[in-house]
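Why run this: before we spend reagent on co-expression, it is cheaper to look at a predicted model of the complex and decide which construct boundaries make sense. The entries below are exactly what would go into the expression plan.
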Amino acid sequence: MTDLSVQFTGVTKTYPHFTLSDVDLKLPTGSIMGFVGANGAGKSTTIRILMGLVHQDRGAVEVLGHAMPSQQAAAKRDIGFVSEDMRLYGPATLAWHMEFIRSIYPQWDALYAQDLLRRFDLKPAQKIKGLSHGQRVKAALLLALARRPRLLVLDEPTTGLDPVARCEVLGELMAVLADEERTIFFSSQNTLDVEQISDQITFIDRGRIIDSADKEIFLDRWRRLRLVLPPDTTLPRLPGIVQVGGSSRLPVLTISRFDPAMVAACQEAGASVQAVDSMTLEEIFIVNVQSRREGAIA
Amino acid sequence: MNSSIVISQSDGRPMYLQIMEQIKQKVAVGEWLPGEEIPSIRAMAVTLRVSVITVKRAYLELEREGVILTQHGKGSFVAPDPGLASRLYDGVLAQHLQQVVRIGTTLGLTTENLVDRLRDAEAHLNAHILEKETL
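The model came back. C-alpha coordinates follow.
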Protein backbone atom coordinates (compact mmCIF):
# COMPACT_ATOMS: atom_id res chain seq x y z
CA MET A 1 0.00 0.00 0.00
CA THR A 2 1.15 3.47 -0.80
CA ASP A 3 -0.06 6.68 0.80
CA LEU A 4 -0.59 8.20 -2.63
CA SER A 5 -3.88 7.36 -4.31
CA VAL A 6 -2.86 8.87 -7.63
CA GLN A 7 0.61 9.39 -9.02
CA PHE A 8 1.52 10.67 -12.49
CA THR A 9 5.19 10.78 -13.48
CA GLY A 10 6.20 12.51 -16.71
CA VAL A 11 2.95 11.65 -18.48
CA THR A 12 2.78 12.77 -22.08
CA LYS A 13 0.09 12.28 -24.70
CA THR A 14 0.23 13.79 -28.17
CA TYR A 15 -2.76 14.44 -30.40
CA PRO A 16 -2.62 16.20 -33.79
CA HIS A 17 -3.64 19.54 -32.28
CA PHE A 18 -2.98 19.11 -28.58
CA THR A 19 -0.20 17.77 -26.40
CA LEU A 20 -0.36 16.92 -22.74
CA SER A 21 3.28 17.37 -21.68
CA ASP A 22 5.18 15.87 -18.79
CA VAL A 23 2.37 15.81 -16.27
CA ASP A 24 3.43 15.08 -12.70
CA LEU A 25 0.73 14.70 -10.06
CA LYS A 26 0.68 13.38 -6.52
CA LEU A 27 -2.59 12.94 -4.66
CA PRO A 28 -2.22 11.76 -1.04
CA THR A 29 -4.82 9.32 0.27
CA GLY A 30 -7.48 11.00 2.41
CA SER A 31 -7.32 14.32 0.65
CA ILE A 32 -9.17 16.11 -2.09
CA MET A 33 -7.52 17.68 -5.13
CA GLY A 34 -9.11 20.38 -7.24
CA PHE A 35 -7.89 20.38 -10.82
CA VAL A 36 -8.38 23.78 -12.39
CA GLY A 37 -8.01 24.79 -16.00
CA ALA A 38 -9.71 26.62 -18.83
CA ASN A 39 -11.62 24.78 -21.56
CA GLY A 40 -9.21 22.73 -23.65
CA ALA A 41 -6.41 23.00 -21.08
CA GLY A 42 -6.09 19.22 -20.77
CA LYS A 43 -8.28 18.45 -17.75
CA SER A 44 -10.39 15.80 -19.45
CA THR A 45 -7.42 14.18 -21.18
CA THR A 46 -5.67 13.90 -17.82
CA ILE A 47 -8.78 12.38 -16.24
CA ARG A 48 -9.20 9.91 -19.12
CA ILE A 49 -5.59 8.80 -18.69
CA LEU A 50 -6.15 8.47 -14.94
CA MET A 51 -9.13 6.21 -15.67
CA GLY A 52 -7.25 4.16 -18.29
CA LEU A 53 -9.70 5.33 -20.98
CA VAL A 54 -6.87 6.95 -22.92
CA HIS A 55 -3.37 5.45 -22.97
CA GLN A 56 -0.43 7.78 -22.43
CA ASP A 57 2.42 7.81 -24.97
CA ARG A 58 5.02 8.18 -22.24
CA GLY A 59 5.23 8.28 -18.46
CA ALA A 60 3.89 6.25 -15.54
CA VAL A 61 0.43 6.42 -13.98
CA GLU A 62 -0.36 4.65 -10.75
CA VAL A 63 -3.86 4.67 -9.27
CA LEU A 64 -4.57 3.02 -5.90
CA GLY A 65 -1.33 1.09 -6.31
CA HIS A 66 -2.23 -0.20 -9.78
CA ALA A 67 -0.33 0.71 -12.95
CA MET A 68 -2.57 2.31 -15.55
CA PRO A 69 -3.70 1.39 -18.10
CA SER A 70 -2.41 -2.20 -17.75
CA GLN A 71 -4.08 -2.96 -14.39
CA GLN A 72 -7.16 -0.82 -14.89
CA ALA A 73 -9.65 -3.62 -14.24
CA ALA A 74 -8.30 -4.02 -10.68
CA ALA A 75 -8.09 -0.28 -10.08
CA LYS A 76 -11.63 0.41 -11.30
CA ARG A 77 -13.23 -1.80 -8.68
CA ASP A 78 -12.37 0.96 -6.22
CA ILE A 79 -12.85 4.05 -8.37
CA GLY A 80 -16.11 5.94 -8.69
CA PHE A 81 -16.15 8.03 -11.85
CA VAL A 82 -18.61 10.75 -12.77
CA SER A 83 -18.18 12.84 -15.88
CA GLU A 84 -20.30 15.39 -17.67
CA ASP A 85 -20.84 13.24 -20.72
CA MET A 86 -21.74 10.21 -18.62
CA ARG A 87 -24.61 8.42 -20.30
CA LEU A 88 -27.26 6.98 -18.07
CA TYR A 89 -29.91 4.90 -19.85
CA GLY A 90 -32.72 7.36 -20.60
CA PRO A 91 -35.79 5.08 -20.75
CA ALA A 92 -34.87 3.35 -17.45
CA THR A 93 -35.60 4.60 -13.95
CA LEU A 94 -33.07 5.61 -11.32
CA ALA A 95 -34.11 2.53 -9.30
CA TRP A 96 -33.22 0.33 -12.28
CA HIS A 97 -29.76 1.93 -12.43
CA MET A 98 -29.26 1.47 -8.71
CA GLU A 99 -30.16 -2.22 -9.01
CA PHE A 100 -27.84 -2.56 -12.00
CA ILE A 101 -24.83 -1.04 -10.19
CA ARG A 102 -25.63 -3.05 -7.04
CA SER A 103 -25.52 -6.28 -9.10
CA ILE A 104 -22.01 -5.44 -10.33
CA TYR A 105 -20.41 -4.03 -7.19
CA PRO A 106 -20.70 -6.16 -4.05
CA GLN A 107 -19.73 -3.24 -1.80
CA TRP A 108 -22.88 -1.30 -2.81
CA ASP A 109 -24.28 0.35 0.33
CA ALA A 110 -28.09 0.28 0.10
CA LEU A 111 -28.64 2.32 3.26
CA TYR A 112 -26.30 5.07 2.10
CA ALA A 113 -28.05 5.02 -1.31
CA GLN A 114 -31.44 5.55 0.38
CA ASP A 115 -29.94 8.36 2.42
CA LEU A 116 -28.54 10.03 -0.69
CA LEU A 117 -31.89 9.73 -2.49
CA ARG A 118 -33.46 11.72 0.31
CA ARG A 119 -30.67 14.27 0.63
CA PHE A 120 -30.44 14.83 -3.13
CA ASP A 121 -34.26 14.94 -3.35
CA LEU A 122 -34.34 12.28 -6.09
CA LYS A 123 -37.19 9.89 -6.86
CA PRO A 124 -36.14 6.31 -7.67
CA ALA A 125 -39.21 5.70 -9.86
CA GLN A 126 -38.38 8.58 -12.18
CA LYS A 127 -36.98 7.84 -15.64
CA ILE A 128 -33.57 9.31 -16.40
CA LYS A 129 -34.79 11.10 -19.53
CA GLY A 130 -37.23 13.12 -17.41
CA LEU A 131 -34.52 14.46 -15.08
CA SER A 132 -33.12 17.97 -15.16
CA HIS A 133 -29.36 18.48 -15.63
CA GLY A 134 -28.85 18.94 -11.90
CA GLN A 135 -30.86 15.82 -11.06
CA ARG A 136 -28.88 13.84 -13.62
CA VAL A 137 -25.59 14.93 -12.05
CA LYS A 138 -26.87 14.05 -8.60
CA ALA A 139 -28.15 10.68 -9.86
CA ALA A 140 -24.74 9.86 -11.39
CA LEU A 141 -23.05 10.95 -8.19
CA LEU A 142 -25.38 8.80 -6.09
CA LEU A 143 -24.58 5.76 -8.24
CA ALA A 144 -20.84 6.40 -7.75
CA LEU A 145 -20.96 7.29 -4.05
CA ALA A 146 -23.12 4.36 -2.90
CA ARG A 147 -20.44 1.98 -4.15
CA ARG A 148 -18.22 3.51 -1.45
CA PRO A 149 -15.20 3.72 -3.77
CA ARG A 150 -11.79 4.51 -2.28
CA LEU A 151 -11.17 7.05 -5.03
CA LEU A 152 -13.74 9.37 -6.55
CA VAL A 153 -12.87 10.93 -9.88
CA LEU A 154 -15.22 13.70 -10.89
CA ASP A 155 -15.01 15.61 -14.16
CA GLU A 156 -16.64 19.01 -13.59
CA PRO A 157 -19.17 17.82 -11.00
CA THR A 158 -20.57 21.28 -10.24
CA THR A 159 -20.74 22.74 -13.75
CA GLY A 160 -24.26 23.84 -14.63
CA LEU A 161 -25.69 23.15 -11.18
CA ASP A 162 -27.98 25.63 -9.46
CA PRO A 163 -26.69 27.03 -6.14
CA VAL A 164 -28.74 24.65 -3.98
CA ALA A 165 -27.64 21.56 -5.91
CA ARG A 166 -24.02 22.77 -5.84
CA CYS A 167 -24.15 23.13 -2.09
CA GLU A 168 -25.66 19.62 -1.73
CA VAL A 169 -23.00 18.11 -3.98
CA LEU A 170 -20.09 19.85 -2.19
CA GLY A 171 -21.53 18.78 1.16
CA GLU A 172 -21.71 15.14 0.06
CA LEU A 173 -18.13 15.28 -1.25
CA MET A 174 -16.92 16.60 2.10
CA ALA A 175 -18.90 13.88 3.89
CA VAL A 176 -16.94 11.28 1.89
CA LEU A 177 -13.72 12.78 3.24
CA ALA A 178 -14.85 12.12 6.83
CA ASP A 179 -13.26 8.74 6.18
CA GLU A 180 -9.49 9.19 6.05
CA GLU A 181 -9.06 6.33 3.58
CA ARG A 182 -11.06 7.99 0.83
CA THR A 183 -9.72 10.35 -1.77
CA ILE A 184 -11.28 12.70 -4.30
CA PHE A 185 -9.91 14.10 -7.54
CA PHE A 186 -12.18 16.63 -9.21
CA SER A 187 -11.81 19.00 -12.10
CA SER A 188 -13.58 22.31 -12.16
CA GLN A 189 -13.76 25.69 -13.78
CA ASN A 190 -15.31 27.06 -10.64
CA THR A 191 -12.43 28.29 -8.51
CA LEU A 192 -14.77 29.11 -5.62
CA ASP A 193 -15.73 25.44 -5.26
CA VAL A 194 -12.11 24.41 -5.51
CA GLU A 195 -10.97 27.01 -2.98
CA GLN A 196 -13.62 25.90 -0.53
CA ILE A 197 -13.16 22.14 -0.40
CA SER A 198 -9.72 21.26 -1.84
CA ASP A 199 -6.66 20.27 0.13
CA GLN A 200 -4.48 20.23 -2.96
CA ILE A 201 -4.78 22.49 -5.96
CA THR A 202 -3.36 21.94 -9.42
CA PHE A 203 -3.54 24.42 -12.29
CA ILE A 204 -3.26 23.20 -15.85
CA ASP A 205 -2.96 25.33 -18.95
CA ARG A 206 -2.23 24.40 -22.56
CA GLY A 207 -1.43 20.82 -21.65
CA ARG A 208 1.06 21.62 -18.91
CA ILE A 209 0.78 21.67 -15.14
CA ILE A 210 1.60 25.25 -14.23
CA ASP A 211 1.32 24.99 -10.46
CA SER A 212 0.45 22.33 -7.91
CA ALA A 213 0.52 22.73 -4.14
CA ASP A 214 -1.26 22.35 -0.86
CA LYS A 215 -4.02 24.97 -0.79
CA GLU A 216 -2.91 26.89 2.28
CA ILE A 217 0.62 27.24 0.84
CA PHE A 218 -0.91 28.35 -2.41
CA LEU A 219 -2.98 31.09 -0.85
CA ASP A 220 -0.09 32.16 1.41
CA ARG A 221 2.46 32.51 -1.36
CA TRP A 222 0.46 34.91 -3.49
CA ARG A 223 0.01 38.54 -2.47
CA ARG A 224 -0.70 41.84 -4.12
CA LEU A 225 1.39 44.74 -2.81
CA ARG A 226 0.12 48.27 -3.36
CA LEU A 227 2.95 50.80 -3.08
CA VAL A 228 3.46 54.51 -3.21
CA LEU A 229 6.74 55.28 -4.95
CA PRO A 230 8.30 58.74 -4.48
CA PRO A 231 9.45 60.38 -7.79
CA ASP A 232 13.17 59.54 -7.66
CA THR A 233 12.99 55.98 -6.31
CA THR A 234 12.91 52.73 -8.22
CA LEU A 235 11.11 49.52 -7.44
CA PRO A 236 13.16 47.12 -5.34
CA ARG A 237 14.11 43.86 -7.05
CA LEU A 238 12.04 41.17 -5.39
CA PRO A 239 11.93 37.48 -6.21
CA GLY A 240 8.69 36.16 -7.60
CA ILE A 241 7.17 39.33 -9.03
CA VAL A 242 4.70 38.00 -11.55
CA GLN A 243 3.00 41.18 -12.66
CA VAL A 244 3.56 44.90 -12.19
CA GLY A 245 0.42 46.94 -12.67
CA GLY A 246 -0.90 50.31 -11.59
CA SER A 247 1.00 53.49 -12.42
CA SER A 248 4.66 54.41 -11.97
CA ARG A 249 3.86 56.38 -8.80
CA LEU A 250 1.34 53.85 -7.50
CA PRO A 251 2.62 50.45 -8.58
CA VAL A 252 0.76 47.25 -7.80
CA LEU A 253 2.98 44.17 -7.57
CA THR A 254 1.63 40.65 -7.83
CA ILE A 255 4.00 38.27 -6.10
CA SER A 256 3.98 34.47 -6.30
CA ARG A 257 6.51 33.85 -3.54
CA PHE A 258 5.55 36.32 -0.86
CA ASP A 259 7.64 36.66 2.28
CA PRO A 260 6.91 39.29 4.98
CA ALA A 261 10.54 40.48 4.62
CA MET A 262 9.55 41.90 1.22
CA VAL A 263 7.52 44.62 2.92
CA ALA A 264 10.65 45.77 4.76
CA ALA A 265 12.67 45.61 1.53
CA CYS A 266 10.14 47.89 -0.19
CA GLN A 267 10.24 50.36 2.70
CA GLU A 268 14.06 50.37 2.69
CA ALA A 269 14.00 51.19 -1.01
CA GLY A 270 11.95 54.29 -0.15
CA ALA A 271 8.54 53.00 -1.18
CA SER A 272 5.66 53.09 1.27
CA VAL A 273 3.55 49.96 1.41
CA GLN A 274 -0.15 50.86 1.33
CA ALA A 275 -1.54 47.36 1.46
CA VAL A 276 -0.63 43.71 1.32
CA ASP A 277 -3.69 41.98 -0.10
CA SER A 278 -4.30 38.27 -0.15
CA MET A 279 -5.76 36.97 -3.38
CA THR A 280 -8.59 34.63 -4.23
CA LEU A 281 -7.83 31.43 -6.05
CA GLU A 282 -9.56 32.85 -9.11
CA GLU A 283 -7.27 35.89 -9.17
CA ILE A 284 -4.22 33.68 -8.65
CA PHE A 285 -5.30 31.36 -11.44
CA ILE A 286 -5.88 34.16 -13.93
CA VAL A 287 -2.59 35.98 -13.21
CA ASN A 288 -0.75 32.67 -13.28
CA VAL A 289 -2.16 31.71 -16.69
CA GLN A 290 -1.70 35.18 -18.19
CA SER A 291 1.88 35.57 -17.03
CA ARG A 292 2.86 32.09 -18.21
CA ARG A 293 1.32 32.73 -21.59
CA GLU A 294 3.33 35.95 -21.75
CA GLY A 295 6.41 34.02 -20.64
CA ALA A 296 7.00 36.09 -17.51
CA ILE A 297 7.57 33.12 -15.21
CA ALA A 298 10.58 31.11 -16.28
CA MET B 1 -21.71 19.03 18.97
CA ASN B 2 -23.18 21.61 16.64
CA SER B 3 -20.25 23.73 15.49
CA SER B 4 -22.41 26.69 14.31
CA ILE B 5 -19.41 28.35 12.70
CA VAL B 6 -20.16 30.31 9.56
CA ILE B 7 -17.70 30.73 6.71
CA SER B 8 -18.30 33.75 4.55
CA GLN B 9 -17.09 33.76 0.95
CA SER B 10 -17.37 37.54 0.81
CA ASP B 11 -15.45 38.13 4.04
CA GLY B 12 -12.17 38.62 2.16
CA ARG B 13 -10.08 37.08 4.93
CA PRO B 14 -8.71 33.57 4.55
CA MET B 15 -11.10 30.85 5.71
CA TYR B 16 -8.69 29.57 8.36
CA LEU B 17 -8.69 33.01 10.02
CA GLN B 18 -12.48 33.07 10.05
CA ILE B 19 -12.53 29.66 11.72
CA MET B 20 -9.92 30.76 14.27
CA GLU B 21 -11.79 33.91 15.15
CA GLN B 22 -15.12 32.17 15.65
CA ILE B 23 -13.58 29.44 17.80
CA LYS B 24 -11.96 32.14 19.94
CA GLN B 25 -15.35 33.84 20.28
CA LYS B 26 -16.93 30.57 21.39
CA VAL B 27 -14.27 30.20 24.05
CA ALA B 28 -14.41 33.87 25.06
CA VAL B 29 -18.17 33.81 25.67
CA GLY B 30 -17.95 30.47 27.46
CA GLU B 31 -19.90 28.47 24.88
CA TRP B 32 -16.91 26.15 24.74
CA LEU B 33 -15.45 25.63 28.21
CA PRO B 34 -11.82 25.03 29.19
CA GLY B 35 -10.96 21.35 28.87
CA GLU B 36 -14.06 20.59 26.78
CA GLU B 37 -13.67 18.39 23.71
CA ILE B 38 -14.25 20.16 20.39
CA PRO B 39 -15.02 18.60 16.97
CA SER B 40 -12.12 16.78 15.31
CA ILE B 41 -10.43 18.40 12.32
CA ARG B 42 -12.20 16.12 9.86
CA ALA B 43 -15.59 16.43 11.54
CA MET B 44 -15.27 20.21 11.52
CA ALA B 45 -14.26 20.17 7.84
CA VAL B 46 -17.27 18.05 6.93
CA THR B 47 -19.75 20.29 8.78
CA LEU B 48 -18.26 23.51 7.43
CA ARG B 49 -17.78 22.04 3.93
CA VAL B 50 -14.25 23.37 3.81
CA SER B 51 -11.09 21.41 3.17
CA VAL B 52 -9.43 19.40 5.91
CA ILE B 53 -6.20 21.31 5.36
CA THR B 54 -7.90 24.64 6.11
CA VAL B 55 -9.32 23.41 9.42
CA LYS B 56 -5.98 21.80 10.24
CA ARG B 57 -4.25 25.12 9.75
CA ALA B 58 -6.78 26.93 11.98
CA TYR B 59 -6.35 24.29 14.71
CA LEU B 60 -2.55 24.44 14.49
CA GLU B 61 -2.51 28.21 14.88
CA LEU B 62 -5.00 28.05 17.75
CA GLU B 63 -2.77 25.47 19.38
CA ARG B 64 0.21 27.77 18.96
CA GLU B 65 -1.78 30.55 20.62
CA GLY B 66 -2.65 28.26 23.50
CA VAL B 67 -6.41 28.27 22.85
CA ILE B 68 -6.80 24.58 22.09
CA LEU B 69 -4.85 21.36 22.46
CA THR B 70 -4.78 18.50 20.00
CA GLN B 71 -3.80 15.12 21.33
CA HIS B 72 -2.99 12.59 18.67
CA GLY B 73 -5.60 9.84 18.58
CA LYS B 74 -7.65 11.49 21.33
CA GLY B 75 -9.00 14.61 19.69
CA SER B 76 -8.95 18.35 20.24
CA PHE B 77 -9.85 20.20 23.42
CA VAL B 78 -10.18 23.75 24.64
CA ALA B 79 -7.04 24.51 26.68
CA PRO B 80 -7.73 23.70 30.36
CA ASP B 81 -6.93 27.26 31.40
CA PRO B 82 -9.62 28.96 33.52
CA GLY B 83 -8.29 32.43 32.58
CA LEU B 84 -8.51 31.72 28.85
CA ALA B 85 -11.79 33.54 28.17
CA SER B 86 -10.65 36.80 29.75
CA ARG B 87 -7.25 36.48 28.07
CA LEU B 88 -8.98 36.23 24.68
CA TYR B 89 -11.12 39.28 25.41
CA ASP B 90 -7.99 41.09 26.48
CA GLY B 91 -6.36 40.22 23.17
CA VAL B 92 -9.30 41.69 21.27
CA LEU B 93 -9.13 44.84 23.39
CA ALA B 94 -5.39 45.20 22.75
CA GLN B 95 -5.99 44.93 19.00
CA HIS B 96 -8.68 47.60 19.04
CA LEU B 97 -6.53 49.90 21.15
CA GLN B 98 -3.64 49.57 18.71
CA GLN B 99 -6.02 50.50 15.92
CA VAL B 100 -7.17 53.54 17.93
CA VAL B 101 -3.58 54.68 18.40
CA ARG B 102 -2.82 54.17 14.71
CA ILE B 103 -5.79 56.23 13.53
CA GLY B 104 -5.10 58.83 16.25
CA THR B 105 -1.56 59.27 14.97
CA THR B 106 -2.83 59.68 11.41
CA LEU B 107 -5.23 62.41 12.61
CA GLY B 108 -2.48 64.05 14.71
CA LEU B 109 -4.33 63.52 18.02
CA THR B 110 -2.49 63.54 21.37
CA THR B 111 -2.92 60.82 23.97
CA GLU B 112 -5.04 63.28 26.01
CA ASN B 113 -7.27 63.84 22.97
CA LEU B 114 -7.70 60.09 22.66
CA VAL B 115 -8.56 59.69 26.36
CA ASP B 116 -11.19 62.45 26.02
CA ARG B 117 -12.61 60.75 22.97
CA LEU B 118 -12.77 57.47 24.89
CA ARG B 119 -14.77 59.17 27.68
CA ASP B 120 -17.08 60.71 25.07
CA ALA B 121 -17.61 57.31 23.48
CA GLU B 122 -18.43 55.79 26.86
CA ALA B 123 -20.88 58.53 27.72
CA HIS B 124 -22.50 58.20 24.31
CA LEU B 125 -22.86 54.44 24.66
CA ASN B 126 -24.33 54.73 28.17
CA ALA B 127 -26.83 57.36 27.02
CA HIS B 128 -27.80 55.06 24.17
CA ILE B 129 -28.37 52.11 26.51
CA LEU B 130 -30.42 54.31 28.86
CA GLU B 131 -32.54 55.51 25.96
CA LYS B 132 -33.25 51.92 24.90
CA GLU B 133 -34.19 50.89 28.43
CA THR B 134 -36.64 53.76 28.88
CA LEU B 135 -38.34 52.98 25.57
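DSSP finds ten helices and 14 strands in chain A. The two ends of chain A are 37 Å apart (CA to CA). Bring this page to Monday's planning discussion.
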